[in-house]
Amino acid sequence: MARGGLAAAADETGRAKVRPASVEALAERCLTVRRPGVPCEACARICPVDAIELAERSLSLSLDRCLRCGRCAASCPTEAIRVDGFDTVPADTTRLECGRVPPGARAPGTALVPCLGGVSPSLLRRLLVRTADGVVLVVDRGWCRDCPAGGVDEPWRDALERIGDELARLGAARRVAVLREPLSRDVAGPPPGPPRPLEVGLGRRAFLRGAGEVREQLGPRRLVLSGEGRPGRVDPTALRERAGTLAAMAGRERAPASLFPELVVADSCCDRRLCAASCPTGALELEVSDESSVLAFDPTLCTGCRACVEVCPTDSLAFLPAGEDEPVRRRTLRRRSLARCGECGASYGPPSPSGRCPACEKDLDLLRVVHRWVRGDGELRPSNGT
Questions:
Q1: Per-residue pLDDT tens digits for 117-162
Q2: Helices 121-130, 157-170: inter-axial angle, 10-degree rounding
Q3: Dihedral angle at the C-alpha atoms of 352, 357, 363, 364, nearest 10 degrees?
Q4: What stretches of 217-323 show up as alpha helix (H) in DSSP?
Q5: Does 120 share its domain with 214?
Q6: Which pTM was predicted?
Q7: Which of 24, 90, 92, 347 is deepest in the core (most CB within 10 A)?
């Protein structure tokens, strides 16, 4: 976990300027950091000021440019980025307003967020479950187009469209609506942006004692996530929470599978395990025992990255955007019986009449060819004719 912590920089008067932390990033949830073969550029693509840079197993966020609007966090499929002001919305909130709205214009039940573009689907789901009448309003004051954190008329549109689609599939009597109440820009507060520096006076001796530390922090401050060691799976906590919240919204034990991606496997599956190894969240797993190998799929953990489909050497996997209208559950895609090779002891499948795995059969076939060639009673060609 990395935070945009307090950073100090000295000006020409010897006074330190300190900015408080307000952005948090979790390396264990970041697809870019944990899984280099699964491209994800959602946060960098949506940032209105290009404060995020992505590289091989690395995410870098310029804290001096970051507006704290939360749009990157709202777009992240695994919620790897968090911005202050969104997770603390009260449970009884029925209206979400831009943080620039003055106190006198706010209605009861209103919660202010740094930017309506940072309103995520997960925040809306939590509010929909908690509200008494099942209605959440996003209040549009008409300021987004000219705001540096917006630049578009409705920066919340993607989140609302996703929630609307989920509610329609759930058949839930809940909704998120946009309430347009234009307000003069003259009364608007400052737009979201890096917090104003808080000047902390330092005496000459105190400043000199900390000069080394301050000198190291001169220049642009950055929050950097970088992968160390071998790539691993992404923490799927946010994906599990989504499945649970969707079920609560529908008043069911399980949400319908139509809200999640689906995989179909053909009989041509080669059982080389590349698909399961490529899955960043563990949605696709291969469980191997002495008797069988089971390829299982949990739709609630699938991000729709299609990495499994792309690496399959036999094109045996097909990706579907949505499953059937039945309760979602982890299910078995393919089960294959295994046997233990009588030559090398390795597990293989399907079992062969000879009791040997394909590798040992190949070795034995090669020995037969060499034996015939040494005897001079055959061509130097495998017995199978290849």
A1: 999 999 999 999 988 788 999 999 999 998 888 788 899 999 999 9
A2: 50
A3: -40
A4: 237-250, 274-278, 307-311
A5: yes
A6: 0.76
A7: 24
